[in-house]
Each structure stands twice: as C-alpha cells, then as structure tokens.
Amino acid sequence: MIVKTIQQVAEMMGAPYELSHKDIVIQGVSIDSRKIEKGNLFVPLKGDHTDGHRYVETAFQNGAAASLWQKDVPNPPEHFPIIMVDDTLEALQRLAKAYRDELSIKVVGVTGSNGKTTTKDIISNLLSSRYRVQKTEGNYNNHIGLPLTLLSLKQDTEAAILEMGMSSKGEIDFLTRMARPDIAVITNIGEAHLLDLGSREAIAEAKFEIINGLDKNGVLVYHGDEPLLERLVQNTPHLTVKTFGESAKNDLYPTKIRQTNEGSQFSINTEPEREFFLSVLGKHNVFNALAAILVARELGISYDEIEDGLKKIELTKMRLELVEGSKGEKIINDAYNASPTSVRAAIDLVSELQGYERKILVLGDMLELGPKEKQYHEEIGKEINPHAIDYVFTIGELGQYIAKGAKTVLPEHRVFAFMEKEKLVEKLKSLLTGNELILVKASRGMKLEEVVLLLQA
Prior knowledge:
It is built from 16 helices and 21 strands. It is an alpha/beta fold. It has a six-stranded parallel β-sheet, with helices on both faces. A six-stranded mixed β-sheet has the order 16-17-21-18-19-20, sandwiched between helices. A four-stranded parallel β-sheet has the order 3-4-5-6.
C-alpha cells in the first residue's frame, strides 16, 4: 500500500501543504470511516445521500493519520492533520495515478461485457506461480474502486490484475489512462449497458477504449470471434494483438471441451496432446481461461505452470458457485449478475451436466437492457430446451416475460412466475426430492442469493 508523508501525498495530488504535520506518515487509504486501519489517509467523498466529511472526526478516532477536506465544505476540524483540496474524488484519483507511475510493475487490465471478474481471478491464479500478484477485490472496478485498488498495491507487488467496469462511454478511457496496462483484455461484447449506450456497436467502442492507456509495447488480448472488435482492431494501426475464441482463426482456441460436475476438461491448439482441467463450471469459462492463458504466456508462464494453476482456481463468490440445498439438491449460485449472453451460457451448462433426476431454472430480471428489455427476456424463455429443463421459476417484473416465453415451449404446469422470493422457494421446495440441479441467476439488483440461502435453510 502507499506509504508516504503528508507532504509527499499533498505534492502527488497537487495540493499545497504548509502545516506542521507534514512529516506524519500515512499508510494506505480508506473512504469508509468504519473500516479505517491505523495510519490510513481518510478520503471523505460527497455522495447523493451522504457526505463523508461528516465522519472525518470519527475516522481520526478510529486511527486515521490524516484526512482530505474539500474546500467548499465549511468548518474543517482544526486540530487534526487535514489536506485541503478542491475536490476529494479528483484528489484521490490524482494520488492513485501518481502512485501507479512510481511503481515498477506489470499491469493487466481486464474489461468486457461478461466474464471480467472470472477472467481476472484466473489470470491472478496463473501468474501467482511466478509473480507476487494483487488483483481488484470485489467490485472495486470503477472511478472510485480502481484508485483504491492502485493505492493498495504493495511496493513489492510484481503484477496487478485490474478489472475495469463501465456504464457509459469514456469511463474505460479514464480508468485505463490511470492504470496504464501492459496487457489489456476484452473478454467479449454482450448486451449489458444497452440502456445507456444503445447498441452493441457502441458497447464495443466503449470497451475498446482500454487500448487508450495501453503501453506502447503492450498487447491487446481479445475475443477474435467478435466482428465488432475485429473491425475496431483493423482500424487501429500498430496495435499488437492476440486472439482467443472458438474458431481456428484465433491464436488460441479449444480443440476439445468436456463438461463435468466438477469443472471443464479441454485441450488447445498450441498444446494438442495436453488436457487441461479448469475447476470452474461452464463452457464460457473455458474461453475466459483461454484469455488468461494468453496473458500468462505473454508474461513467461510455462504450460506446466498453467495446467497446475487451472486446477486450483478460486472464483469470487456467486459466480457459478456449486452449493447444496437442505434436501441435498445441488444449486448453482450464479446470482452476481446477468445478461442475455451469460444467462444463455448458464442454461447451456445446466443442460449439459449429467447425473441429476431433474433440472430447474430460477431466473430473475436482467437489468439495464434498454427499450427491448421485455423482448430479451421473452427470447430467453422461448430458447429453453424442454427436453433438458424440467421446471422454470421466474421472479420479478421482467422475469414474467421469461415465463411467458417458456410457456411456448414447456407445459404451463412446469413454469411458475413469482414476485416474492419466499413464495417462490415455498413452491420450489414442495417439488424437491434431493436429486435436482438448480440454477439461480439474475442481475445483481435482484439479490437472488437470498433464494439460495432460503433453499439451504
């Protein structure tokens, strides 16, 4: 983490500091007064519903060594080490960029509509065989989270894997210029953010902004089967690229994929005699692994190390997490997020897995899909294979359209639509014998992990 004197911090942010506290050393940065660690610099942010300046004195009581204070906020405390700045968020971002510029470190930036976090986790695991690695934790992937991640990097960290999220044009550009990646990864282009950006073409352009901060000798790793990305690459001269995907035109593609209840077995074109085992469910995660393999190879990781690393992947929670319900049923908790692309992939996974008496989908609203959101939900329902899926349960206003579509391919007595989680779980439990496989998936705002907890109770 950043360890600097208050004077050095002020200089890195471009904020003059003349007070007697200038030699006090800060260690790390926090924006939450409740989570202050001793020696932290507290950064009070102004939000729509709260103002961190109200908690500055609490932050000092909890161990903060210093705090920023925005000049337009009245009554700064007089007896604590305070650095006055024009805007606390901008000061945090300037500090993070200055700190990143000091570090001698390999940076991998990861963006995409789906699979960012999984790809980040796999890359981190593969690189850990040879490097001291840190990665974005949780959802710290935006204009606040990325600066905090950069400022948490230890001086001896050798590789940082940084996830970059967005909701509108220009956000990835801002993040990548701060992070300055040596390798940039675009996992895919899906439908997430159609509400804000309007088209998949606009989404692709927004994700492609990641190259704007790429080192001049850097490499872009991207899904080569996506024509929207291919077109952007062709229009960008002097860009070094590596591609992954399903087709043989890519630098890296699978020659065999087999799903099991424990993970995925696959072979690749560059090592045809070797079989890799990825301890993560889902064919789509094999492609996330291919992106990670290309990154690892660029940074000198051997195939032996890659093979070993893939077996030990631990993903962020609620991403195809296999857990057990109270009757012994197996539940795939994929409640972290959802888009049409990721929902289709998860349903395909459930359809492929063997050894279960019945297979059940619990699907909720997919958010931020724009004016065609009802159509996207209904299409999901219509595409369900009635020979592979036994029951469909939906929850939410938009979930009802999944149910509507599902009733065109499944008998109505196998499709249930709910607005309340408790009633959904009550009905679902009445059908369970213990040898079922249940997929639980929706956008983050639906909080369907609560359904998983109710099924386990």
